[in-house]
């Protein structure tokens, strides 16, 4: 549970932003949906160092050699901060061009640009938190990340209505206020994370030396995960781009469905992260048989979690869309397609479970290859055929379901071939 709660801070912040933006109007809802989705997707690309730090730290923790990676954690911290600053400097000036690719609607583009210009300040803040919480997970502690996430979510919820709608004679900042609330929440999360690092862990905030024998493997692992995540983001971009061609109601409905899908992904990935922590430790200890047993246990329980989320979506099917908008056209489009998001949750869970296991044992090439296969051999043909046959939003979400199924099957086969205790080590 700490792992699950710790994993959903950023999607909860995005859902909160959309909840209040939907009360302003459909253009604001679409703008926040696109802007926050792009923010999260960039964050996913850059945050793969967390998984690499987790894998290295857990391996050394399992081998009882934690002192050997004390300098690696602060190196990763400042590397992430630098990445966040660089991508802020790149993406904010290019925001008009970026969001014009997402939607042809000029009003939505303009609002999304303003929202993202503020929200992007959170890139270095969130990436710093990710680097350090990756180290927390590596030493088998999931509780700290949970409390950090809870604090950030509560701060964001408290500030959103104040900064969006104002108070007294101050009229507020609209959706830009929502973005600012998110940035303040992330700054507070970073402050708590730095305090925990200094007072509760063996890691410093600055390394004694900037060279480390694990740095190149960490960069290589991160590079594979980044390449994987860039491919993943291409799928999300294509989904948004096709949805924008179907009209304002369609893109509004798609952004709501996508934010709920991302919430599910982070929720399920939270449990998978707990599995990755244990898998990394067992990998470091060389216990192949237990690694295989625990990995399959993680997969089975993750499927139950996915099924539970799908059931909740079905039970509250008519209420979920109303949390984000009152627009009848957007709600009609959302209700017509959201069942596909609900029924595919157990399928998604299989892929997310294996993602966590492979990240924990540091096998990023397998994750990269699964994404490449799923994207170019399954997702792209499926979404293209759906568009050609007039399926519109249904075609997009069928493509996502097939994409996740392909990833899950690929990783299942690879794991059994390489890590079955009855086979030789690959």
Give the CA-CA distance, first to last residue. 33 Å
Q: Roughly what percent helix?
A: over 70%
Mean pLDDT: 83
Number of domains: 1
Give the uncertain stretches in residue-range form.
none
* Main sheet characteristics: none
The secondary-structure element order is: HHHHHHHHHHHHHHHHHH
Give the number of helices.
18
Global Rg: 21 Å
Q: Give the total of beta strands.
A: 0
Structural class of the helices, strands and pairings? Answer: mainly alpha
Task: Classify the beta-strand content into a percent band.
Answer: under 5%
- Specify the overall morphology: globular
Task: Give a structural overview.
This protein is an all-alpha fold. It has one domain (2-419). Helices cover 82% and strands 0% of the residues. It has helices spanning 2-7, 9-22, 26-46, 48-62, 72-91, 95-102, 106-119, 122-138, 143-165, 175-200, 215-244, 248-285, 288-315, 317-320, 328-343, 345-360, 364-388, 393-419. Helix 4 (48-62) packs antiparallel against helix 11 (215-244) and helix 16 (345-360) packs across helix 18. It starts with a helix and ends in a 7-residue tail after the last helix. The model has no long low-confidence stretch (mean pLDDT 83).
């Amino acid at each position: 549970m700490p792992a699950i709660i710790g994993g959903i801070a950023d999607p909860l912040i995005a859902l909160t932003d959309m909840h209040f933006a939907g009360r302003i109007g459909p253009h604001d809802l679409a703008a926040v949906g696109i802007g926050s989705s792009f923010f999260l997707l960039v964050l996913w690309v850059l945050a793969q160092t967390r998984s690499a730090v987790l894998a290295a730290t857990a391996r050394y923790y399992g081998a009882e050699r934690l002192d050997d990676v004390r300098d690696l954690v602060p190196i990763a911290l400042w590397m992430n901060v630098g990445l966040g600053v660089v991508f802020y400097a790149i993406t904010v000036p290019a925001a008009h061009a970026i969001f014009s690719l997402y939607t042809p609607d000029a009003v939505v583009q303009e609002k999304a640009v303003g929202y993202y210009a503020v929200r992007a300040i959170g890139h270095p803040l969130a990436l710093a938190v990710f680097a350090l919480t990756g180290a927390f997970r590596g030493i088998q502690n999931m509780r700290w990340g949970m409390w950090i996430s809870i604090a950030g979510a509560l701060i964001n919820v408290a500030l959103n209505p104040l900064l969006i709608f104002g108070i007294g004679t101050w009229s507020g900042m609209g959706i830009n206020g929502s973005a600012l609330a998110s940035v303040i929440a992330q700054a507070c999360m970073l402050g708590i994370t730095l305090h925990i690092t200094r007072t509760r862990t063996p890691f410093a905030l600055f390394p004694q030396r900037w060279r480390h024998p694990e740095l190149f493997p960490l960069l290589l692992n991160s590079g594979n995960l980044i390449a994987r995540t860039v491919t993943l983001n291409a799928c999300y971009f294509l989904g948004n781009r096709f949805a924008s061609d179907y009209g304002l109601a369609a893109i509004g409905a798609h952004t709501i469905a996508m934010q709920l899908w991302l919430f599910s992904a982070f929720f399920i990935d939270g449990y998978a992260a707990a599995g990755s922590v244990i898998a990394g430790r067992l990998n470091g200890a060389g216990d192949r048989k237990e690694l295989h047993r625990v990995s399959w246990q993680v997969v089975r329980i993750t499927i139950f979690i996915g099924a539970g989320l799908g059931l909740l979506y079905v039970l509250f099917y008519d209420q979920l869309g109303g949390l984000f908008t009152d627009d009848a056209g957007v709600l009609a489009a959302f209700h017509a397609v959201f069942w596909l998001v609900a029924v595919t949750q157990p399928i998604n869970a299989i892929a997310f479970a294996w993602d966590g296991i492979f990240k924990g044992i540091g096998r990023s090439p397998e994750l990269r290859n699964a994404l490449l296969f799923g994207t170019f051999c399954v997702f792209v043909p499926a979404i293209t055929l759906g568009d050609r046959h007039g399926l519109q939003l249904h075609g997009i979400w069928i493509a996502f379901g097939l994409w996740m199924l392909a990833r899950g099957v690929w990783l299942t086969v690879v794991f059994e071939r390489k890590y079955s205790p009855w086979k030789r080590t690959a």
